[in-house]
Amino acid sequence: MALTYRCLIIDDESPAHKALISHISKFDELEHSGSAFNGMEAIKLLNENQYDIIFLDINMPVISGVELMELQPNRPITIVTTAYSDFALSAYQNDAIDYLLKPINSSDLRNCIQRIRDVDLQTAESNESGSGKHDDTRVHSDLIGITGLDSIIFLKIEDIMYLKADGKYTMIQTTTEHITSSKNLKVFETILPEAKFMRVHHSFLLNLKYIKKFQKEYNTLVLENGAQIPVSKSRKDLLMQRLMHV
Question: Is the pTM of this model over 0.85?
Fold first, then answer.
């Protein structure tokens, strides 16, 4: 878990850099470690240096933010910055952890950084546990037991349609209900059977049996209950390979 996050700002406008640098300076855990004013500069810096977080503008000339994400699928944690909310889908399809609407305010950035810290903390706890199987998240045969505040909820694994990351929590959608677990999505990715489940997006782990169709234009899966799940472009090919063997 990073104690200080090294941040790279990628934006073609100088005022945007100045505003973000000012915001970053207010957080002890953030360090401004680089600036790029176009996609080519950004790729060069990403190849030569180590960063923990990139703040990425979408609307840039020559290489847009979306194109850069496609060219750098293994990039650091990505926070998209944009003046247009309709770019949110493209951001999530490319595994951005969040997006911030310009003009960015400190409150939105604080919430975003807290999400990253919560995920880091629980991932570290999962790694320290060895197998990642926590005392309050157990798998027995075809059941998974999740401890709530006053009870243990047992779910049939085959009834789980998908799981969605929600900050430090995970929302579990079954065929009949949805419940919330205090464990992060990585924990469930570790303990649920790999033959049946796949992480198709930074925020989504799903049961492949419930896929109804894949919408090519939007890189989106439609499940049997009508839910639409975004697919990261970096995971699309592997998903198609997996579906051939379901």
Answer: no
- Please state the separation of Cα 50 from the chain's center in Å: 19
pLDDT digits (tens, 9 = 90+) for 62-103: 899 989 988 887 889 999 998 876 666 666 667 777 888 889
Q: Is 82 within 8 Å of 10 (Cβ atoms)?
A: no
- Who's near 17: CB < 8 A, 6+ residues apart? 9, 11, 35, 37
pLDDT exceeds cutoff 60 at 37: yes
What is the widest separation between alpha-carbon atoms in the chain?
Answer: 57
| Tokens linked to 124 | 């570290």
Closest CA to 185 of 135, 126, 113: 126
Give the per-residue pLDDT at 73.
Answer: 78
DSSP string, the chain: --SSEEEEEE-S-HHHHHHHHHHHTT-TTEEEEEEESSHHHHHHHHHHS--SEEEEES--SSS-HHHHHHH-TT-SEEEEEES-GGGHHHHHHTT-SEEEESSP-HHHHHHHHHHHHHHHHHHHHHHHTSS---TTEEEETTEEEEE-SS-EEEEEGGGEEEEEEETTEEEEEESS-EEEESS-HHHHHHHS-TTTEEEEETTEEEEGGGEEEEETTTTEEEETTS-EEE--HHHHHHHHHHHTT-
